[in-house]
Amino acid sequence: MRIAMIGTGYVGLVSGACLSEFGHEVVCIDNDAAKVETLKNGGIPIFEPGLEDVVAVNAKAGRLSFTTDLKSAVAGAEAVFIAVGTPSRRGDGHADLSYVFAAAEEIAAALTGYAVVVTKSTVPVGTSRKVEEIIKKTRADAQFDMASNPEFLREGSALEDFRRPDRVVVGCDTEQAREVMREVYRPLFLNETPILFTSRETSELIKYAANAFLATKITFINEMADICEKVDGNVQDVARGIGLDGRIGKKFLNAGPGYGGSCFPKDTLALVQTAQELGAPSRIVEAVVKVNDERKLAMARKIEAAFGGVKGKTIAVLGLTFKPNTDDMRDAPSLVIVPYLQKAGAIIRAFDPEGHKEAAKHMELDYRADTYDALEGADGVVILTEWNEFRALDFAKVKAALKTPLMIDLRNIYRPAQMAENGFRYISVGRS
Q1: Catalytic residue list contains 172
Q2: Residues of CATH 3.40.50.720 domain(s) within the chain?
Q3: R_g over Cα of the chain
Q4: Contact 299, 258 (CB under 8 A)
Q5: How far is CA 89 from CA 65, 151, 286, 317, 338, in A?
Q6: pLDDT score, position 384
């Protein structure tokens, strides 16, 4: 079938590439001409393992193409996905839906026959109805149905998540729309992937509820880590002990410097705002947002205390992105922790395998070419992101490079006993 994907950001590009891999003819649209030209020439504007190959193979096969011409791309499409950005609106935390609504107006003018218009962007409850109103107002004779189809892609493993998802959620009102969406996801349907059809409002809420719940798990285990530090407990054992309970599960129970990224921060804020407006405030999610914001500052102070003050100290920082296997810096803990240390007088040398270019848009640092270059002559090292290459450091080489054998590991990737044996003063999270 013919599919139009509006937006070539993280969600749009991954979704469009994977749908073309399913055998559909997909046209990805973006109003950024430079980005479209880059994609046409085989370049990928984001870092996602394996994505470059999927794009190249399907573009070569003629199933995947890129354009700035929305009108021609939407004409004749059976499904039109809106996958534009919905960042937090400055000042109030609401999701900024201006890009979604602008896309709706353009779609209305471009439709040439029946199509299902699908909101793929993460949007507050009721957005699909508003998009429908815009299209009908702009084009009274438009033949279309609306659907909500939230994404559940994890950065760093997005291709696998799309190909083998836990579930596919689709909110729509008509059988015709359901049939179109079944065809969109036909390969997954044949593989017996659970496909949950709901109302549009329910579908929109599922996305926010899922992210808020996962953010709550992260925040909960971070608070348990603080308690562990007071009583000489081990937060990893706590996480293992509760995670083996099938009702809880082991995922998202890794203590650290707080959550970041493109989803959890903005989605929890948007849910808080929506809930308050509806007169059904979510006190748990409100607390999660507050505690997570405070967490990042607490970790900065933890580092400062470990150094006995950082004024004039040179600190090697390993990892800047909010998680490994991505170049995404959105709401990364480093964006709070590193400026705090700089303001306190520290000199920061940083290395991130993929994040330098994005990080440089936010922070002026001494960016180094590799791990050991960053370590050379530093007064200590801080691990902020658990990239695999930081998991097997040469301890002798690290110790020789540092002025002082001090490591602050905010991701708990090493064992305290192991570090003590190698002569390090080692500080982690929630472990003695």
Answers
A1: no
A2: 2-198, 212-427
A3: 23
A4: yes
A5: 31, 21, 17, 31, 24
A6: 98
Give strand pairing partners of 407.
Answer: 381, 426
Judge whether 16 and 54 are in contact, CB under 8 Å.
no
Is 366 buried (19+), middle (13-18) or exposed (0-12) by CB count in 10 A? middle
Query: How many percent of the chain have pLDDT more than 90?
Result: 97
Residues in contact with 413: Cβ distance below 8 Å, sequence separation at least 6, in sequence order: 383, 386, 390, 391
What's the CA angle centered on 223, arms 221 and 224, to 5 degrees?
Answer: 60
Residue with tokens 């890129």, as numbered in its chain: 66
User: Are 44 and 112 contacting, i.e. CB atoms less than 8 angstroms apart?
Assistant: no
* Catalytic residue from among 18, 28, 228, 263: 263
User: By C-alpha distance, which of 107, 84, 77 is closest to 32?
Assistant: 84
Tokens linked to 146: 């609306």
Is the confidence at residue 287, as pLDDT, over 80?
Answer: yes
Report helix, strand or coil for 48: coil
Asked whether residue 110 carries a pLDDT value surpassing 90, the answer given is yes
| Residues 402-414, mean pLDDT to the nearest whole number | 98
Contacts of 169 (CB under 8 A, 6+ apart): 148, 149, 150, 152, 196, 198, 203, 206, 207
Structure tokens at 371: 């791990």
Burial class (CB in 10 A: 0-12, 13-18, 19+), 62: exposed
Give the SS3 label for residue 95: strand
Give φ, ψ of 126 to 5 degrees: 100, -10
**Token digits of residue 144:** 């279309």
20-34 pLDDT tens trace: 999 999 999 999 999
Q: Which amino acid appears at position 363 of this protein?
A: M
- Which tokens in the block code for residue 431? 């472990």
Rounded Cα gap, residues 322 and 339, in angstroms:
15
CATH number of 2-198: 3.40.50.720
CA 198, distance to chain mean position in Å, is: 25
Contact 260, 330 (CB under 8 A): yes
Q: How far is CA 40 from the centre of its chain?
A: 25
pLDDT of 91 > 80? The answer is no
Q: What is the DSSP string of 120-153?
A: -S---TTHHHHHHHHHHHH-TT--EEEEE----P
Rounded to an integer, what distance in angstroms lies between the CA atom of residue 8 and that of residue 220?
A: 34
What angle in degrees, to the nearest 10, is found between the helix axes of 127-138 and 98-110? Answer: 40
Q: Which fold has domain 212-427?
A: Rossmann fold (3.40.50)
